[in-house]
Amino acid sequence: MKILLIEDDKFFQDFYSFKLRQQNIAVAVASDGDAGLQMISSFQPDAILLDLIMPKKDGFEVLQEMKKRHLTEKIPVLVFSTLGQEKDIARAKELGARDYVNKSFFDFEKLLGRILELVKNRQK
Amino acid sequence: MEEADKKRYKKLYLKTGRVYIRDMQKNIDALRKNHTNTNAIENLFLCAHALRGQSLLMGYTSLGNYLESVEKVFNARKRHILDIDAAVLNALEAGIERVAAAFRQIEVTGSDLDFLKEIRYLQEAAGTKIYI
Questions:
Q1: Which domain holds residue A42?
Q2: Is the Cβ–Cβ distance between A50 and A85 less than 8 Å?
Q3: Residue B132: inside a domain, yes or no?
Q4: Using 50, 70 and 90 to split pLDDT, how confident is the model at B130?
Q5: Total number of domains constituting chain B
Q6: Which residues contact B23 (CB under 8 A, 6 or more apart)?
Q7: Could you give the CA distance from residue A47 to residue A3 in angstroms, rounded to a whole number?
Q8: Is A74 exposed, middle or buried (0-12, 13-18, 19+ CB in 10 A)?
Q9: Which residue has the higher pLDDT, B126 or B131?
Q10: Sign of the four-CA dihedral A58, A20, A89, A107
Q11: Chain-centre distance for alpha carbon A92
């Protein structure tokens, strides 16, 4: 399985990519929205973990761009949020994101479960 | 977060966090010169947001809660419902100083400081608009 992590923060990049790789998941990391959009075609992920608040191109712009290219249907996006962003999460879902997890409250089983479910539903 | 992960990531947390603290202090200085500096406002919002997330993940709840208040202040400013004045900047400066002190304590003892006083101080300076 291949996951693209679009996240600007070095700490979260390291932490979550290490945890996912421990599960034999291939992980590519993009530090901003522009790099993330470019990596979608080269890396061809099974699912995307997307931070919403980033400098340059933020998560909403990434979702809008993916929608234009009809990629949100093909590649499921899991929003990687922090608590207190409920309005943002609702907006992200309107733009095509499938689900969300709170990245500040680590529950790896839950995160893995959500990723597996998204990938499984995509394959149906 | 499990203890093993906390041990493994403490060094990276302190390293990346200190960069955010320095950036926040620099941008508060920029706001003292110009209260409407949009770059400084955006940077402070992003720094507080990132450091809040990291701190909560590491289990430093009090520190994370304080940074959430800072994030709310700049989110309110970005939405033009709050003006950043000298009182808000004074509260922020004192709070960020306390964040730096918390980092020194985390490095030595592994636990953070209490931020109730700083949260109250910032809320008093910014008012209730940050909750809108």
A1: 2-123
A2: no
A3: no
A4: low
A5: 1
A6: B43, B47
A7: 5
A8: exposed
A9: B126
A10: negative
A11: 11
Tokens of B30: 């920029």
User: Which residue range is the domain that position B17 belongs to?
Assistant: 3-127
Q: CATH code at B121?
A: 1.20.120.160
Nearest Cα residue in chain A from B72? A84
Least trusted range by pLDDT, from A10-14, A79-83, B84-88, B121-125: A79-83
**Phi-psi label, residue A112: left if phi above 0, alpha if psi -120 to 50, beta otherwise:** alpha
Q: What is the pLDDT along chain A (124 residues), one digit of tens a residue?
A: 999 999 999 999 999 999 999 999 999 999 999 999 999 989 999 999 999 888 888 899 999 999 888 877 789 999 987 756 678 888 899 999 998 888 887 788 888 998 999 888 876 6
Confirm if A3 and A115 have CB atoms less than 8 A apart.
yes
- The answer to the question of residue B19 being in a domain is yes
State the CATH number of the domain containing residue A18: 3.40.50.2300
Contact A10 B9 (CB under 8 A): no
Residue to substitute from B11, B12, B15, B56, interface A, most A β-carbons within 10 A: B56
Give dist(CA A62, CA A51) in Å, integer: 10
Contact assignment for B53 to A84 by CB distance below 8 Å: no
**B94 falls within a domain:** yes
The number of folded domains in chain A is 1
Structure tokens at B126: 């910014």
Q: Name the residue facing B49 among A14, A53, A105 (closest C-beta).
A: A53
- Residue linked to tokens 């992920």: A45
Estimate the crossing angle of helix B86-109 against helix B3-33, to 10 degrees: 150
pTM of structure: 0.87
